[in-house]
Amino acid sequence: MNHLVNITRKELKELLTPGSVLSIVIVVILMMAIGTMVSAQTDDAKNPSAIGILNGDGSGTYDQDSIGYIHYYYEKIYSLTPEEADKYIIMMDSEYGDDSAIISEMQNKGLTSALIIEPDYSENISNHIQATIYEYYIFENQGMMSSVTSSIADLLIVYVSNNISTNLLTELTGDSDYAIFLENPVVNTNCDSSSNISYTYINGKLHSGVTPFEISTSMMSQNLMIPIVIMIVIVMIGSIVISSMGNEKENKTLETLLTLPVKRTTIVGGKLLASAITGLIFGLAYLVGMMFYMSGLTSNVGGKDLSEYGLSLNVGDWIIVMIMIFLAIFCALGICMILGAFVKNYKAAQTMTLPISVLAMIPMFVMMFSSWESLPTVLQVAIFAIPFSHPMMVMDNLMFGNYTIVIGGLIYLVIFTIVTIALTVKIYKSDILLTGLSQTRFAKMFSKKKKSG
Predict the structure, then answer these.
(1) d(CA 184, CA 195)
(2) Same domain, yes or no: 265 and 143
(3) What is the pLDDT of residues 137-165, one digit of tens each?
């Protein structure tokens, strides 16, 4: 037991160097900073932005009604008083049709969007001719938030059009309720998000007032976060382990380790245990960083509280998730140590990380855009056979009660881990690590047959 502890401690010192720990800390801090920055930007996007109004009509009634609807929209949507709404609705003085003057005034007043009401606006509506409100923009590169100003202007025009439509129908029918009915004779969830007319069956229970879109939107963070974190950790730890073995061979320290009076099983166990602990530490660090990053990225995209629909994890579920991640790391390390046994030096070790990277990326992309249940049978078998798939889909399976897949995945990971460890121990007991693959019994037999042929 003391030998296992000593080897594990030695490997941890080699893996958890100040440089590796510092790099992880920097990455986590960057993720948290980016998440906070994106969240701040989305919060700013939710705040009202000023919009210019150029009334080219000025003599009718519908133009004034339209401006009034815009005021009311700001008051209703942003919970502003009439006085506060006035600060965001900037009346413009430029001449209608003079584009250069309009843009110049927008720049002087710090506006990025403006609505221009045509001169015949009220007359056209009175004569049952479609009237026009033009949209003018000054593009400012704000990344993903660049489209916010145009979407608000579009919403304002739709809101004005709907209100004028209701008023016209009211004038024709003499009944405002009937006018509202004529405008929307069939109630739709998209028109009234506060209504409970949508029903979704989730985990054996029917829930009202929620749609699959809202559920999937709420789950977006974890669907993106977990696969990415698992992939990064497996690729990173795999690269470290294979490179470490290449260094040990190049520096002849592996020969010294194998000549010590320590069981090869203990050596393999210590290396795997130290690497798995390191992978778990790095994984948790990345998970924290990604949580901040994804929460900032998806904080204002809408969604529901998943716990209200039984789609949350308890303490026991999180323990299963951690066990699954730990076992997946063990599987990756077993594969890496088998691959690392055949490298001659550090440079050759770099090429051996490709298989582990591919095996980690395939389920990552599949799980980010699909689910195991929706895959055809052939792909289900293929994804199930890749050990790294199971921690990527375990959270969804636990939430939706797919315990058969979870238990089957745990059993498979345990068997895979045992097999890879057994193979690694067998390799460490052989002379492959010191003499190379060309000196094995199989290679000698093959060379004799080749010479005799």
Answers:
(1) 14
(2) no
(3) 887 655 444 445 557 888 899 899 989 99
